[in-house]
Amino acid sequence: MKDSKLTLSVHSGSHGDPQYKGAVTPLYPSSAYDYEGQAILYPRYYNTPNLKAAAVKVAALEHGEAGLMFSSGMSAIVTGLITFLKEGDHVIFQSDLYGGTYYSVITELPRLGISYTIVDASDSQNFAKAIKPETKVIYIETPSNPTLKITDIKAVADIAKAKGIITMIDNTFASPVNQNPINLGIDIVAHSGTKYIGGHSDLCCGFLVTTHALMEKILSKAINWGGSPDANTAWLVERSLKTIVLRVRQQNENALAIANFLKTDSRIGNVFYPGLEDHPNYATAKTQMPGGFGGMLSFEVKNDALAFTNKLKLIKRALSLGGVESTICSPLKTSHSKMTAAERAAIGVSDNLLRFSVGIEEAEDLIDDIKQALG
Ligand SMILES: *Cc1c(COP(=O)(O)O)cnc(C)c1O
Question: pTM for the whole thing?
Fold first, then answer.
């Protein structure tokens, strides 16, 4: 299949400037529009020009019919989930969820009378086994945070389809450049746009992409619950998306080079990257991530992780990910700090594990920085 992502990233959703015929979509900050002779435009109806331009571009890159932009990734995820769940329903999650998603699930769903089961996604049959008559949604996230486990997307989508269950995936780590779950049968794709979609560590937003029919339901809830972004952020995101393919391709290339280097260094313990041939799910990753294996990897340093990150010069210590600049964080101190040591151990998060979001710098410079910090 022809890969037109470079073209879609530049042109889809973007429209020129009708007044001055400028090349780019103008910023329309209005929250008040004339309602005669056109649909009612309003930011919280998610239909103002910049919100729509950004959402159309993400939907095109995900090969989906419709997109919606939210004020954060969590706003997108929670709105998507709760649209299809009510009291008495059941939902299945994979383990190794993004921390924010995990804590939302365990604190909010029981309060609403929605039950859930968390399954080990390394065997997709675990999803089939967890299905109950009242199961309405199956939710996955691959590659997972922080140990880059791979869930077989098509296998899970097939299991759910056979039972009429809606599937949702957090596609943040892969980005729309590397993995398009809708092609594999997934119903709803969620993104934290704060990461690769924004790409410059300077904004916060989220996206959902799905069919027109499901989006109609999501939109009606999203209007009730709020969570729409502002025009400025949408305008910035539309601009950022024009380079997402270039950025992510470079990040894929850098991450693979760095993972290969880390494998050979005796001062490093385990290295987790789905692009390494000895990753347990390499074959699945290769099939379902045709664009590349992504810019996220994690590894264990054998000596003190804090001392190592203190010595890094180019690579910044920071929580977020997906920016053009390389950042590194300790799950122990950040995303997984609320878990007990036993819970962390169960999902392979050791105390000296570091999660590395590889930027677009020269791979050799990043490797040199790691080498000097290990020394
Ligand atoms: C950051 C992140 C989120 C949450 O997104 P926010 O924009 O912080 O609300 C969800 N999933 C993954 C995988 C993330 O990295």
Answer: 0.97
For the segment(s) 244-374, the CATH number from 3.40.50.300, 3.90.1150.10, 1.25.40.10, 3.40.50.150 is 3.90.1150.10
Q: What is the pLDDT of residues 56-75, one digit of tens each?
A: 999 999 999 999 999 999 99
Pocket-testing residue among 98, 147, 179, 319, ligand 1, by greatest number of atoms within 8 A of Cβ: 98
> Where does CATH 3.90.1150.10 sit in the chain?
244-374
How confident is the model over 150-203, as pLDDT tens digits? 999 999 999 999 999 999 999 999 999 999 999 999 999 999 999 999 999 999
- Fold classified for 5-241: Aspartate Aminotransferase; domain 2 (3.40.640)
Which residue out of 195, 247, 249, 355 is catalytically annotated? 195
C-beta of residue 332 within 8 angstroms of C-beta of residue 349: yes
Buried b (16+ CB within 10 A) or exposed e, 31-61: eeeeeeeeeebbbeebbbbbbbbbbbbbbbb
Asked about 42 being catalytic, the answer comes back as no
> What separation in Å is there between the alpha carbon of 286 and the centre of ligand 1?
24
**Any catalytic annotation for residue 265?**
no
Q: 44: Cβ–Cβ under 8 A, 6 or more apart, which residues?
A: 223, 226, 228
Kindly give the number of the ligand 1 atom that is closest to the alpha carbon of 194. Answer: 7
Residue 316 annotated as catalytic: no
